[in-house]
Specification:
four-stranded antiparallel β-sheet; alpha+beta; ATP-binding; 9 helices; globular; transferase; metal-binding; 37% helix; 279 residues; Kinase-like_dom_sf
Length: 279
């Protein structure tokens, strides 16, 4: 696949090209499935916009909204290097805004009957004004409940317990993943369960293990994470409820610091392990 930056006034966009030499029939089916999902979702300011798609000879093209600030995980990790005195240094309010934007985008998916299945900071893209938008619908399904029967690998560290053990995916399993993403935001891109081998995660989670509270985040934020990580999916909040809670935090961001942006917290607490980033 090739990505080309283009200018399609009044919008800038990426043109994704699937060439004739390396595309299998399965690639084409996956491409069309993702295209149909994005078409069914429709426009929302917190979802990456589909501008169009076409086929010319044996080449498939899709034009997507161009988002100049890249993915959220990379953005957060770069922010670790910033001095607190930098003009563009991240604030607690901005971190809450990221979470709120994602919750709004995911609520739109949920009301459209779409399960994302791969919600993580690496799949959130940042537009102008650092507006966060949900992207990468390669694993998404337009169903209320999806039971995976294929052997396609899904990154384990963001999965709910029922998804790891039973391969069952629902909007509430996306809520679990949102809790992991909220932890990524609070830790400026830390690797979830950095000290636990992937093959041990299932046993640990079923025994009740949950990630500890990041030292820089408030009890309110950590409580929200824990609610997203309830073993019983019906006890997890809906995205609509998450929007309500995060909106209140966003309204109170002047008076309250929900996620302290302090460099020493990240050096001493949240570990980045690239070898475990996407598995």
């Amino acid at each position: 696949m090739k990505l080309r930056r283009g200018l399609d006034l009044p919008r800038r966009h990426f043109l994704s090209e699937w060439g004739r030499c390396h595309v299998t029939q399965k690639d084409r089916e996956d491409f069309m499935a993702e295209f149909r999902t994005m078409t069914n979702i429709g426009y929302h300011p917190n979802v990456v916009a589909l501008l169009g798609a076409c086929q010319r000879e044996d080449v498939l093209y899709v034009a997507l909204e161009f988002l100049p600030n890249g993915d959220l995980r990379s953005f957060l990790r770069k922010a670790r290097l910033q001095s607190e005195s930098d003009e563009d240094a991240l604030s607690s309010g901005q971190l809450v805004a990221f979470a709120l934007d994602v919750a709004k985008g995911m609520n739109h998916l949920a009301t459209s009957g779409v399960i994302h299945r791969d919600l993580a900071a690496r799949n959130i893209l940042l537009g102008r004004g650092l507006v966060a938008k949900v992207g990468d619908f390669g694993l998404s399904r337009g169903e209320d409940v999806y039971i995976q029967t294929s052997t396609r690998r899904v990154p384990t560290r963001w999965l709910a317990v029922e998804s790891i053990n039973l391969r069952i995916y629902t909007t509430k399993s996306d809520v679990w993943s949102f809790g992991i993403l909220l932890w990524e935001i609070a830790t400026l891109g830390g690797t979830p369960y950095a000290d636990i081998p992937t093959k041990s995660l299932s046993t640990q989670l079923l025994s009740g293990y949950r990630m500890a509270k990041p030292s820089n985040c408030s009890e309110e934020i950590y409580s929200l994470m824990l609610r997203c990580w309830e073993e019983q999916s019906d006890r997890r909040p809906s995205f609509k409820e998450l929007i309500s809670i995060l909106t209140q935090m966003d309204d109170n961001k002047i008076e309250h610091t929900y996620m302290e942006v302090n460099r020493c917290h990240y050096e001493n607490f949240s570990v980045i392990r690239p070898e475990r980033d996407d598995n």
